[in-house]
Design brief:
heterodimer; A: mainly alpha; two-stranded antiparallel ribbon; 3% strand; B: mainly alpha; 16 helices; disordered N terminus
Chain lengths: 292, 351
Amino acid sequence: MIGWFDQNLVSMVDGVAYGLLLFTLAVGLSLVFGMMDVLNLAHGTLYLAGAYTAYALSDGSWTGLLIALVVGLLVGVLGGGLLAAAVAPLQGRGHLDQAALTLGISFIAAEIFLMFFPAETLSTAPPTALAGSITVLGYTYPLYRLVFIGVAGLLAALVYLAFERTSVGALVRATVADRDMVRAMGVDTRKILFGVFAFGAVLATVGGVLGAPILAPGPHVDQRVLVLSLVVVVIGGLGSVRGALLGALLIGQVQTLGVALFTDYAPFLLFGAMLFVLALRPQGLFATGKTA
Amino acid sequence: MSTAQPARDVRHTPDTRAVEPARRRRPDVRQSLVVGVVVLALLAIPWVLGTYAVMTFTKILIFAVLAMSVNLLTGIAGLPTLGQAAYFGVGAYAGALTAIHVSELGLVQLVVAVVAGVVAALLTGPVAIRARGVAFLMITLAIGEIAYSAAGRLHEITRGTDGLSGIPPVVAVPGAEGLRNQGFIYYYVLAVALIAYVLVAILLRSPLGLTLRGLRDNEARLRAVGYRTDSYALAAYVIAGGLAALAGSLWASSQRFVAPGDMGFQVAALALLCVIVGGVGSMWGACLGAMVVIFTRDYLGQMGFASGPLLLGILFVLAVYLLPKGIAGGPRQWGGWLRRLRKGAAGEVEV
């Protein structure tokens, strides 16, 4: 048993980093759907936009990373705002139209990216100070992943606390549960919806800036990210922050530990994990009481 | 019980006909004329158009079959799917492997492909049909993506990303030679596609087809009446899987090359686009949608002012905003669109 841990600890730590990255992506997708009933299939595109930003601006220095983060934040606000505005006229038209629209936008964005970036997977270097490896208790890790776990873990904790412990978070949760009731109490739910859309988009683009050294930008990465986030949301339950966190950590382990242990069956593990959770709880781990 | 009141049954027959005029009416002359002209035009294509156009029309027919599969789930049964490319791919690989190792006869390949598609749908469907609506869409998307990455990794079977090449030309009739001429391949695909269309049309008029519409329109009531709705959802899923696999086998026969990209997300998105452009719920709309979509990608995309995917993205956005009911929704919606535009210009805000 100890020997098993010994061999796979590095993969497991990798899995935590990957899982936290997925959380920053999935939580926005989950909340936007849980609240606005909007399925945003361009969510992976937001990650890609952030990751390309990191590729273009992050030159290995702290300043470069900082600039990339600020630009990524702006891209998120802009992208989220644009998406929210594009989807707004489709209220009441059903999910298929939303899916088609956001899918179309993601196609267009992917082509625009290809006008500026080469059509290959682009490796993005982390800041030089974090580039090397570090040995802790006899295990060697890439330093960046450990720092990423710290930063993303902090981010996840902040999102969770803001959602569960603040009054704004309570308002957001109330809107997820019953939008009409919140509106009847005199709250402008459209502002909340817009805010959450922009917030989710920013988390995705900032996740892209930070995650570029882990999940490198390139063609079709937007779709991969989208699928992984959707699986996390399905497993976690729509509109649940807790579910997104748990689902993301689970999928992170499946994707790293699973690949390390059962290389040949890796694609089926993702499906297997989804199957397992859905068999036990069809609404996901933490259902918000809302059915799709 | 029924023998006790035969007279009443007879008296009631005209009433039931009157209640369902749309379903029971005789095909009118205009409709048969349109069908005749369309079939004649399809038959004439290899005689009037060049090789590239015939190839494009072959692709259009195959995508029309795939779009019918998507429409059966999405438009008829109300289960929005982005995963049909998975079964398309399963059919393509099954058909291609059969052609290489077992038989060059088209019928054998089609049967094996459909069986493979049905089995794949039976294995994966129970997971998908636990959900409805967007969750269903998400799960099918995940299934598609997993199938795609599996095709890339199961190297011994699929030869990975290199793809399966060396697929022999398909033999349409036992004893005949393999089809090499693009026009003959087109006719082979056309024949299978027409048969598939007729079968789907029959299915839609059957009690099963009506039940699937009921699943879409009011599942709770259907369940309350005593239908096991999950079984019907699975039936729709499995039939659609077989239909997608049929299209996949045609794809393998016409391209004579299969790669993981053929079951990728792009294919699934394209098939959904066909349905949305054509009009959700309408089978001829889905076929027309396939024509618009493939024409946009392969013809307009070749002309050089913008790449195919970019044009498709724009087509997606325009279709959603301007054609809420698709082409099959008819010109009536354009009137509504203009009225809304005028209303908007007059300062009225629509909620």
